[in-house]
Amino acid sequence: MHLHRVKLHPDQLYRTTLASVDKAESDGAASRRTVNEGWDDPSPTPYHTTLTTALPLAVMLPSELGTLPAAATLRPPSSEDCDSYCKASKGKLKINMKKYCKKDYAVQIHILKADKAGDWWKFTVNIISVYKQGTNRIRRGDQILWIRSKDIACKCPKIKPMKKYLLLGNDEDSPDQNGIVADKSSLVIQWRDTWARRLRKFQQREKKGKCKKA
């Protein structure tokens, strides 16, 4: 009999004892395992759960883990993966008229908080200034900024709560049709007050049709 201490829930620990394994597993038959679990409670009430060979990752034996596809390991992306994924967005540390013209919107934002929402990160931001509008109208004040989880994991864009940024991005549908979207192709740079004057000049040039020539 082997005792395995496993973590099935972020906030609670279960004690799991693998009581029996059907020997038919060796010839490919579906085995059944009876797990006697008790909560970490002063007076636990054990109960029995019957599992098939399709066990959750958290209660699989080490030998079984080796047979899982790589996608099931839930590991974060490697630096090599991120370098390849973010390659097109590296080196964007300067703002110029050409970059301004290529993007649909340009705003100064203050990151207030961040929440995980499925495959996305949902940032509550304060739009301080709007320098360029896309088809999706952006107003000053609190808004939602959506960024895919993989982009955040690979730090493209690199963004932190309570910081101010210049954000240049393209119009894209958000998960709930509300707010703005940034991705690995967006230009996100920590804000500098000296940029305000330059961005106002870009605004004026755009109104004169300069972006069509950029």
Automatic annotation (TrEMBL):
<protein>
    <submittedName>
        <fullName>Netrin-1</fullName>
    </submittedName>
</protein>
<dbReference type="InterPro" id="IPR001134">
    <property type="entry name" value="Netrin_domain"/>
</dbReference>
<feature type="region of interest" description="Disordered">
    <location>
        <begin position="24"/>
        <end position="45"/>
    </location>
</feature>
<dbReference type="InterPro" id="IPR008993">
    <property type="entry name" value="TIMP-like_OB-fold"/>
</dbReference>
<feature type="domain" description="NTR">
    <location>
        <begin position="82"/>
        <end position="211"/>
    </location>
</feature>
<dbReference type="Pfam" id="PF01759">
    <property type="entry name" value="NTR"/>
</dbReference>
<dbReference type="InterPro" id="IPR018933">
    <property type="entry name" value="Netrin_module_non-TIMP"/>
</dbReference>
<keyword id="KW-0964">Secreted</keyword>
<keyword id="KW-1015">Disulfide bond</keyword>
<dbReference type="GO" id="GO:0005576">
    <property type="term" value="C:extracellular region"/>
</dbReference>
